[in-house]
Amino acid sequence: MPAYYQLLGREQDEQGITTAHYRSTLHSQGAWNAHEQHMAPATGIMCTELEQFMPRTDMRIGRISLDIWGLIAFGEFSIQTRLLRPGKTIELIESTMQAQGKTCIVARAWRMMTQDSSEISGLEDDKVAHPEELPVWMGMQSWPGGFIQTLEARADEQCRSGKGIVWLHNDTDMVEGSNTTDFVRLMGMVDTANGVVPRDQTSKAKWAFPNLDLQIHLYRWPQGQWLGLEVVQQYGHDGIGLTSGILHDVHGPFGRSEQILTLRKMNA
């Protein structure tokens, strides 16, 4: 079974801080540069460490905030995870990815106490068409890189520049030799929201729009193998943009994502 990453080793110090060592495979290759990782699987491997760190049965992750410090270097890297704010009902944990002596990504996750709130539950985000009801979509193939080649995509016929609904699926494990949870598999595709409905879709696109962060809020725990992205992408007039998404699994909406963009004119 192909995988995005290989685990090289893991240790834990006396303070409970864990450090995991990984090597990226071609399947995690980015779309902007051949020598970097795509942020989508990088998010997935960060979420692998966040999910596995000191798990509690009475809590789940409710928010993940990832800041991209620079190029996510391809090859060997480490992820260090620690507890920042312990508590009975909420906890804040942090994972830091480092490669080639530099910090690449800092991710923080709020773990929150769970309880039965069904008597007041209610969602305002609407369901969208099931992926099996939609045609195969080749729109993602305009992007280069090994990661994009691992994806199966389906899209709503109304999908256009700046707005649309796209479903994604992959059969690639996050870590070689380990089972991939639904949470990690779906989180490992959320970053692609920034590439499904770019505002400049011409064959000679003049602008790059890399995101500096990825914010994910989960009002329901995700399930299944398909990630639905209901995306709106907006560009301001001063070089800054925003990609916003409602996140779906096959059971319905489960959360939202936001990515701030730096709009950069590409060399002719």
TrEMBL record:
What InterPro entries is this protein classified in?
A: ACOT8-like_C, Acyl-CoA_hotdog, TesB_ACOT8-like_N
- Ranges for domain Acyl-CoA thioesterase-like N-terminal HotDog come to 30-112
What range(s) does the Acyl-CoA thioesterase-like C-terminal domain occupy? 131-261
Its protein name is Thioesterase
